[in-house]
Amino acid sequence: MPDASVSYGQYKFLGFEFLTWLWFLIEKDQDRLKETDKELISLEIGNRIVLENFKNDRAETVTIKGDDAGLEEGILALRKGSVVTEISLVYSDIGSREWRFTLKGESFDIANLKTPVTGQAESEDDMEGIILEKVYLYEKIVRWTDAVFSRFIKLRISKDWNQTEVKLMREWIHS
Description:
This protein has helices at about 5-10, 15-30, 30-35, 70-80, 125-155, 160-175; strands at about 40-55, 60-65, 85-95, 100-105, 110-115. By secondary structure, it is α+β, with helices and mostly antiparallel strands.
């Protein structure tokens, strides 16, 4: 059995490919994301995206930050062979609720998770319900991330990945 640190280094590319693919779906085919989660209304790039190019045994990093930042520099980095290593997302559901969070490709960490506002506890008895609601709101994003990643892995190991998906992603990057 390989050492965990060896496997971690060997397969972290999957996280980077996943985030790059996710950006592609956000820009070009949100309906596929909605198939995974019927409550999803929209998924948008948040205020930060980090891309890295690992060629020539060193990493070149491009970070795009800001609420109104254009993503043109990110597309240019993709054209040069970079992959997304970190992406901030805004998830909105049918209840007009909004989650903001960051996904990290190397470790699959969910960071900076901000859930929709929960009700205020008017009494001590309300506190348990508020806590359970907050746990549900956190779990929703974890389950969503797992479901989308599962869909990605199934696609990634299928024939469709190289025959169709990579082609569509290249067309998007070079359009």
